[in-house]
Design brief:
heterodimer; A: 365 residues; alpha/beta; TIM Barrel; four-stranded mixed sheet; three-stranded parallel sheet; 15 helices; 10 strands; 13% strand; globular; B: 395 residues
Chain lengths: 365, 395
C-alpha cells in the first residue's frame, strides 16, 4: 500500500495520467489527507487559487415523468396530487426574476412529460431568447434529449440542431447516474443506457455545444462502477473536449425507494478529490453546495474543487429527496465563503468567461 | 514565514512541543498549509490514541433556566426574568427529562443554565440532589455558574465546589470559556467572569478531584492570536492540574444574537475562523498545542455531521454526544440532529472504532464495554498537580 501510494503521488507530481487501478486504490485507501493534498496540487495547476461561481436560477418546468427511477423523489405520475407543470408564463416569470437578480444563466431540467410536445420546448427556448437575450439557457439532460428524439421520430442530430436553432446555449450533465448497466437495472431500469447517454453527449459536442457530466454516488454502486463511469467520461472527453465540468452528485435517500443513509463528508470529499485526480482532461470539478451542504462545499475547495455552482434560487429535485441546505445563496454569501477559504472568488458565465473577479487579501493555501 | 512544506512542518513540530509564542501560533493558524496542520494534528492524535478509537456518549443537555443576568451579546438563549418566554424547570420537569434519558440509554446529564439573579448555592445543591436521585452521571455548572453561586451566597469557590461535589456532582463542563482573553471578553461578555476567574474555578475543581472539559467559542470578534493565547492558557493550566479530560472548540453561531448586528462583528468575521475551513484549522491547531489534554472533541452540533467527520482527520478523537435536547445553539437557528446510530456509522465510515464513553459504574445503560477506561468519574479529593492522566469519561 505504501509503495502504491508513493507511486500514485509520483505520477500526480509529474502530471502523469492515473490508471483505473490508481483511482480504485485512492478510493479504497480512504486516506483523505493524502488524496486531498494531491487533488489540491492538481487543481492549483489547472486553476490557481480561483474558485468559480455563477449567478443562476434553476427552473424545473415539470415533475411529471414517464420514468420511475428508484433514486428519484422528484418525479410524479400525471394524476399524482403533487404533480405540476408550469405554464409558459410561469417559466417566463422565473426568467424575469432571474434577470432582475443579475443572473447570467437559467438552468432548466425536468421530467419526461408524457404529453408535452417537442414544440413546447422549442417555443420556450425561443420565447426566452426573445425576451431575455442576455440569459444563457443551459437546458435538458441527455435523457431529455433522447426522449425528444423518441417523441418526434427525428434523428438525434436533427433534434439537437433544432434546439440549438431555438436558442439552447449548453447542456447540463444530469441523467448520467452510474453508466454500468447492472447498476442502472437496479436504480433506473427505464432510463437510457450509459452508452446512449455518452452517444447523446458526443452528438451534442459535435454540434458545437458544451455540456457538463455528473455521477450519482452513494446508492448501490460499487467503487469499480464509479471508476468505470469516470473512465468512459475521460475517453469521450479525449475525443470531443466538450465537457466543461464534472459534478459528483451525492445520493439523497429521503422519499426514494433505495434504503440507504445520506453520504458522509468523507465519501463526498473522496468523490470530488479522486475525480480531480483521475479526470485530468476536465478543467473544472464542481461541488454542488445544495447536495453536500455549504460547509462541506467550502472545505472541498481545498480538496480539488474549483467551482461551487451558484445562487440557484429555487431547487426542487434534491430537496424532494431531503436536501438540508437552503435553496438559495446570495452572491455576497458565496464570495465570503470562498474568500474565507483563502481562495479568489470569480463570478463566471456558463462558458467560464469571467464576469467579475473579486481581489482577495493574501490567499491562504 | 513564507516557507516550504518542510519549514512549516518544523514550525508545527515546535508548536506541539510547546515552543511557540502567541505571534508564531497566530501565523500558523493564518498561514500554514491546511494539510500541514491536518497531518501534524493527525500525528498527535495517533500518538495519544494509538487504538484508533473514537468515543461518544449518549446523554442529555438540560438547561435548567434561560434567565440570565449576564446578557452576553453572542448569546441567543438568555432571557430577562420578566420576559414572557423566561423559564425555570420545575423538579417534576427535570425528573421527567432524566427518566426519559435513562430510558433512551443515556448515561449522563449535562446540566447548565443562566445566571439566575435569585439563585445561590442552596438552589444549585437542590438541583444536584434532584438529578442524583437517579442512577446517572451529572456533568454540570460551568465556571460562570459556580462563580455566580459563590457570589450570591457569599461563599468561596472552594466551598461551593465542595457542596456541589458532596451533593453528587460528578464533573464540570468547560463552558463559559468563550475566548480566554479579557479584551475579547470585554467586547462580547462584559459581565461574565474574566479568564483568570474561569481558570481559578477549574483549578479549584481539579484540586478537589473533579474533572472537567474546556471549551472555546471562536469566530466572534477575536484575533487569531487570541485563539492561540486561549490554547496556551489551557495548556498551561493543564500542566498545573492535569484535570482537563477534553477540549471542545466550537464556532459562534450568529443567528438571533445582538453581536451579529454589530458592524465590528462583520469586519472581524470576514477575517476570522468562524467557518468550516477555519474550524478545521482551529481544531487541528488545538490538537497540536494541547498535547497534554487527552481528548479533542468535534462539534457536530454547530458544524453538522459531515464536517464533524472530517474533523476526525484533523485531530479529533471524540464525537461528542447525542444531546437529545439542545437549546442554546438551537436558539441561534442551527439544528443539526444525530442519532446514536448515525454517530456510530459516521465514526466507522471514517475508519475509526466507535466506543461509548463509560457511564456511572453499576448503573443501567452503556459504559461497561471498555474496561481499559474504567476510571471513576472523579479522583480522590486533594489530588493536584501530578495526578494520573485523566480518562475519557468527562467531556
Amino acid at each position: 500500500m505504501e509503495t502504491e501510494s508513493r507511486h500514485i503521488r509520483d505520477k500526480v507530481e509529474a502530471g502523469e495520467r492515473l490508471s483505473e487501478s490508481d483511482a480504485l486504490a485512492l478510493y479504497r485507501a480512504r486516506d483523505i489527507l493524502a488524496v486531498g493534498e494531491m487533488a489540491a496540487l492538481a487543481n492549483r495547476r489547472a486553476n490557481g487559487d480561483r474558485v468559480y461561481f455563477i449567478v443562476n436560477r434553476h427552473v424545473n418546468p415539470t415533475n411529471i415523468c414517464v420514468n420511475r427511477c428508484r433514486f428519484c423523489a422528484f418525479s410524479k405520475g400525471k394524476d399524482d396530487p403533487l404533480a405540476y407543470t408550469m405554464t409558459m408564463d410561469e417559466i417566463l416569470r422565473r426568467a424575469e426574476e432571474a434577470q432582475e437578480q443579475r443572473a447570467t444563466e437559467l438552468h432548466i431540467v425536468g421530467g419526461l412529460h408524457p404529453d408535452l410536445p417537442f414544440d413546447f420546448y422549442l417555443t420556450m427556448l425561443r420565447s426566452l431568447r426573445e425576451r431575455f437575450p442576455s440569459l444563457h439557457v443551459q437546458a435538458f439532460t441527455a435523457v431529455e434529449i433522447d426522449y425528444f428524439r423518441k417523441i418526434t421520430g427525428l434523428p438525434l442530430p436533427e433534434v439537437i440542431a433544432q434546439l440549438k436553432d431555438a436558442g439552447i446555449g449548453s447542456l447540463p450533465g444530469g441523467g448520467a447516474e452510474i453508466f454500468a448497466q447492472e447498476i442502472r437495472n437496479e436504480i433506473c431500469p427505464e432510463k437510457i443506457s450509459g452508452d446512449r447517454w455518452l452517444e447523446v453527449m458526443e452528438a451534442v459536442h459535435a454540434a458545437g455545444l458544451r455540456s457538463n457530466a455528473t455521477m450519482l454516488y452513494g446508492h448501490v454502486e460499487t467503487l469499480e462502477s464509479r471508476v468505470d463511469h469516470m473512465r468512459r467520461l475521460r475517453e469521450l472527453q479525449d475525443r470531443t473536449g466538450g465537457f466543461q465540468s464534472f459534478i459528483p452528485l451525492a445520493f439523497h435517500p429521503k422519499n426514494t425507494e433505495i434504503a440507504k443513509g445520506y453520504t458522509t463528508g468523507l465519501e463526498d470529499l473522496l468523490a470530488l478529490a479522486v475525480a480531480r485526480l483521475y479526470l485530468d482532461n476536465f478543467r473544472h470539478i464542481k461541488s454542488f453546495w445544495i447536495m453536500v451542504g455549504p460547509k462541506l462545499a467550502q472545505i472541498s475547495l481545498h480538496f480539488g474543487v474549483d467551482d461551487i455552482d451558484g445562487t440557484v434560487v429555487e431547487e426542487k429535485i434534491t430537496h424532494a429527496a431531503g436536501a438540508q441546505a437552503g435553496q438559495e445563496m446570495s452572491v455576497a454569501e458565496l464570495v465570503t465563503m470562498i474568500r474565507q477559504a483563502g481562495k479568489i472568488p470569480v463570478e463566471r458565465d456558463t462558458l467560464y468567461n469571467v464576469v467579475r473577479e473579486w481581489p482577495t487579501e493574501g490567499a491562504r493555501a | 514565514m513564507n516557507g516550504s512544506g518542510a519549514d512549516w512542518r518544523e514550525a508545527v513540530e515546535r508548536a506541539s512541543l510547546g515552543l511557540v509564542s502567541v505571534a508564531e501560533g497566530g501565523r500558523l493558524l493564518r498561514e500554514a498549509p491546511l494539510f500541514e496542520l491536518g497531518r501534524a494534528a493527525d500525528t498527535v492524535r495517533r500518538r495519544v490514541h494509538p487504538d484508533g478509537v473514537v468515543t461518544y456518549i449518549v446523554d442529555r443537555n438540560i438547561n435548567y433556566t434561560n434567565v440570565c443576568s449576564c446578557g452576553c451579546s453572542f448569546c441567543a438563549f438568555y432571557r430577562k426574568k420578566d420576559a414572557p418566554d423566561a423559564y425555570v424547570l420545575s423538579e417534576e420537569e427535570l425528573a421527567a427529562k432524566i427518566v426519559d434519558t435513562i430510558a433512551a440509554g443515556g448515561v449522563r446529564v449535562l446540566l447548565q443554565g443562566g445566571l439566575h439573579p435569585d439563585w445561590g448555592i442552596d438552589e444549585a445543591v437542590r438541583l444536584v440532589r434532584a438529578v442524583k436521585r437517579h442512577p446517572i452521571l451529572l456533568h454540570g455548572f460551568s465556571p460562570p455558574e459556580v462563580w455566580h453561586f459563590a457570589h450570591q451566597s457569599k461563599m468561596t469557590i472552594g466551598e461551593v465546589i465542595a457542596r456541589l461535589s458532596d451533593a453528587g456532582l460528578d464533573s464540570i463542563p468547560g463552558g463559559g470559556a468563550e475566548i480566554l482573553d479579557d479584551e475579547v471578553r470585554r467586547r462580547i461578555s462584559p459581565k461574565k467572569i474574566g479568564w483568570e476567574q474561569w481558570a481559578a474555578v477549574m483549578r479549584e475543581a481539579h484540586r478537589q478531584g473533579l474533572r472537567s472539559s474546556a471549551t472555546m467559542m471562536f469566530g466572534s470578534v477575536e484575533s487569531p492570536e487570541a485563539i492561540v493565547a486561549h490554547l496556551l492558557r489551557v495548556r498551561g493550566l493543564q500542566e498545573e492540574t492535569g484535570g482537563f479530560t477534553a477540549f471542545i472548540p466550537w464556532v459562534f453561531q450568529p443567528g438571533n444574537t445582538e453581536l451579529s448586528r454589530d458592524p465590528r462583528f462583520g469586519e472581524a468575521s470576514a477575517r476570522g475562523f468562524g467557518h468550516a475551513v477555519g474550524y478545521l484549522r482551529v481544531l487541528a491547531l488545538s490538537r497540536i498545542l494541547l498535547t497534554n489534554v487527552p481528548t479533542v472533541q468535534v462539534s457536530w452540533v454547530t458544524m453538522g455531521a459531515k464536517v464533524a467527520q472530517i474533523g476526525l482527520f484533523f485531530g479529533a478523537d471524540d464525537f461528542g454526544s447525542t444531546m437529545m435536547e439542545e437549546n442554546v445553539v438551537a436558539s441561534a437557528g442551527v439544528s443539526f440532529r444525530m442519532s446514536e446510530e448515525e454517530i456510530v456509522a459516521t465514526i466507522r465510515d471514517a475508519g475509526f472504532m466507535p466506543a461509548h464513553r463509560p457511564g456511572l459504574p453499576g448503573a443501567p445503560g452503556r459504559g461497561h464495554s471498555f474496561p481499559q477506561w474504567e476510571d471513576t468519574p472523579s479522583l480522590p479529593p486533594g489530588s493536584g498537580p501530578g495526578m494520573s492522566p485523566p480518562g475519557r469519561n468527562v467531556p
